[in-house]
Write a structure and sequence with these properties.
Layout: E1 16-20, E2 23-26, E3 31-34, H1 37-40, H2 49-59, H3 72-84, E4 89-93, H4 96-112, E5 121-125, H5 134-140, H6 143-146, E6 156-159, H7 164-170, E7 175-180, E8 183-184, E9 190-191, H8 194-207, E10 210-214, E11 238-241, E12 252-256, H9 277-290, H10 293-316, E13 321-327, E14 330-335, H11 339-348, E15 351-352, E16 354-356, E17 360-363, H12 371-394
Parallel strand pairs: 3-15, 5-6, 5-7, 7-10, 10-11
Antiparallel strand pairs: 1-2, 2-3, 4-12, 8-9, 11-12, 13-14, 14-17, 16-17
Helix pairs in contact: 2-9, 3-9, 10-12, 11-12
Length: about 400
């Protein structure tokens, strides 16, 4: 008999009932150190006082009016995002998947309005994850994402990660945009080297192709800059944002230059809930905290300390771990044992981590993780590695 909740998730046998900072309380009373942050969503941890205050203050005033009317909280957040980024304009969504849908529409509409509707093809990359809508799975193209859901939305090509020659050959007079994550998250914490991102920008400039960046997971301070592409010193034409922007409240956005967004006029896109007063009040407070240079400096410092400790774990457990990947507080451990076993062993140590493709365990903690909490995470991960190794030998 099918359960009342559609069984599309392989859930861990854990029930968290309360959170505070980097800690989660399980229903049985156990206290877990959360190094997953809801898959990079809870950028400021659980129940951050400033976010609770922003949400409750707005909840007492106004929840929803729809986008038929001006929403001051939405305009304030858009103004802040424009001031802090390359963008000239912002559209608010509820999720990364919705942001992907608009990014695809925006890129195609741009060329349609320029009299080149044949420029509708979008180049994406093997290992990508852009969401679970029809456009997003067509962009990713993997069998895991697409099997059973055909016919797929046409107009997407997937190239091997890091194959520069294939990329240059793939850009034709029909190419509308190149869509890429500066750091693949679900794909196994695979960073795109800065030189490659700069090369992508040059290729797009050379061919007129739009550069669309998916910073749903790697953005909002996760790498130690507000957005990951800033490390390469380049800017996209369109960017997808979600996860950390709401600090745990459902919120996403598409940021764009005036030129890239020029085709999106009244009636071309919309959202019932996107940019509602509740979400934007929280998002604005998140932005005020994350955009502070001192805060971002702290992310870089904590990320450096955590990475150094993880390198030590790789050296201490060479039969368990292979390498450390990532940047800032978006880190991954490439495993020799099954990554799922390491995640489960972490649960036994009251440690939350997140699996990814390419046999990787992700560490995506709150960006305000304390130094002692980082050290405690390393100690628990060390014990989990020892337990996983022992279990593997006993099997």
């Amino acid at each position: 008999m099918i359960p009342s909740v559609l069984p599309t998730y392989a859930r861990a046998p854990l029930t968290f009932v309360k959170g505070e900072g980097a800690w989660l309380a399980e229903a049985d009373g156990r206290r877990f150190l959360d190094m997953g942050a809801g898959i990079a969503v809870n950028a400021l941890g659980h129940a951050h006082p400033a976010l609770v205050e922003a949400l409750t203050a707005q909840a007492a005033k106004l929840w929803h009016v729809s986008n038929l009317y001006r929403i001051p909280e939405q305009e304030a957040l858009a103004d802040r995002l424009v001031a802090e980024t390359f963008a000239d304009t912002v559209f608010f969504t509820n999720s990364g998947t919705e942001s992907c849908e608009l990014a695809v529409k925006m890129a195609r509409k741009y060329w349609h309005d320029r009299g080149a509707p044949e420029r509708s093809e979008i180049i994406a990359f093997e290992g990508a994850f852009h969401g679970r809508s029809s456009a997003a799975i067509a962009a990713a193209g993997s069998e895991k994402m697409t099997k059973g859901f055909g016919p797929l939305l046409p107009g997407f090509t997937q190239l091997p990660w890091g194959d520069h020659d294939a990329l240059r050959a793939a850009v034709t007079e029909k190419t509308a945009a190149i869509l890429i994550e500066p750091i693949q998250g679900e794909g196994g914490i695979r960073p795109l080297p800065d030189v490659c991102l700069r090369g992508l920008r040059e290729l797009c400039d050379e061919t007129g192709t739009l550069l669309v960046l998916d910073e749903v997971q790697c953005g909002m301070g996760r790498t130690g800059k507000l957005f990951a592409h800033e490390w390469a010193g380049v800017a996209p034409d369109i960017m997808m944002v979600a996860k950390g922007i709401g600090g745990g409240f459902p919120l996403g956005a598409v940021l764009a230059t005036e030129t890239a967004a020029s085709g999106m006029t009244a009636g071309t896109h919309g959202s019932t809930y996107g940019g509602n007063p509740l979400a934007c009040a929280v998002g604005l407070r998140v932005m005020e905290i994350l955009a502070d240079p001192a805060f971002l400096s702290g992310v870089r410092a904590t990320g450096g300390t955590l990475r150094q400790g993880l390198e030590g774990l790789v050296a201490a457990h060479p039969d368990v771990f292979e390498e450390v990947r990532g940047a800032g507080l978006m880190l991954g451990l490439k495993c020799r044992l099954p990554a799922a076993e390491l995640v489960r062993a972490g649960y036994d140590e009251a440690l939350v981590t997140v699996p990814a493709a390419d046999n990787v365990v992700r560490l995506l903690p709150p960006l305000n993780l304390g130094a002692e909490e980082a050290q405690e995470a390393l100690r628990r991960l060390d014990r989990a590695a020892s337990a996983a190794r022992a279990a593997a030998k006993a099997a």
